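Field log, afternoon session.

UNIT: design team B
ACTIVITY: writing a sequence onto a fixed backbone
BACKBONE:
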């Protein structure tokens, strides 16, 4: 039965919520509709250039800064509405912490995609393994071996024991011309090459 993900454990990263199903390990990420999941805007003094603090102390702007994620939100506020002495300065340290969280999130998303890819691959091979046990495949295999007279169509020398897909897209609905009889050594070599191991693959042996 397919898991419906009822038991989801969450991790709060402020800028995102990570959810993992405790039953099947399914993972997903949710993002906030605002700057973060805990927006706490507060008006602060913001200098475009750090040196302006010393050389042009009145050349500042008032912005709302989220005290959870450090983001500068919205447009500049009207300076005359605020008493400079009562305002805090823009806190770069919050933003730096958030940038570290973003990097951690990016790494997590990469790892999550790897795990998803591995899961898809495992599901594919599990399904394919079941197909190779089916009567449908056994009949196709028999017909191809008989057509090729049990002779390996790669080396044209050894007895064929394997039936190989030459076009993967037809799996489970193969025209017989996309299937070919192979001996075990040739099948191993061709499979290795198809999976990208060109350098390590042995040479197919042809005899006169």
């Amino acid at each position: 039965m397919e898991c419906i993900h009822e038991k989801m454990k969450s991790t709060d990263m402020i800028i995102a919520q990570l959810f993992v199903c405790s039953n099947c390990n399914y993972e997903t990420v949710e993002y906030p509709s605002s700057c973060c999941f805990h927006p706490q805007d507060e008006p602060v003094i913001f200098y475009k250039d750090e040196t302006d603090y010393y050389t042009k102390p009145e050349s500042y702007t008032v912005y709302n800064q989220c005290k959870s994620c450090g983001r500068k939100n919205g447009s500049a506020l009207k300076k005359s509405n605020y008493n400079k002495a009562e305002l805090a300065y823009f806190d770069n340290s919050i933003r730096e912490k958030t940038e570290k969280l973003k990097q951690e999130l990016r790494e997590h998303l990469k790892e999550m995609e790897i795990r998803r890819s591995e899961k898809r691959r495992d599901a594919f091979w599990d399904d394919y393994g079941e197909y190779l046990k089916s009567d449908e495949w056994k009949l196709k295999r028999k017909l191809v071996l008989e057509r090729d007279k049990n002779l390996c169509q790669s080396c044209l020398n050894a007895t064929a024991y394997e039936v190989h897909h030459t076009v993967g897209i037809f799996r489970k609905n193969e025209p017989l011309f996309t299937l070919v009889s192979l001996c075990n050594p040739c099948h191993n070599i061709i499979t290795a090459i198809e999976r990208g191991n060109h350098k390590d693959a042995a040479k197919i042996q042809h005899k006169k």
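LOG NOTE: The chain has three domains: 8-31+98-130, 41-90, 135-194.
NEXT ACTIVITY: expression trials, pending approval
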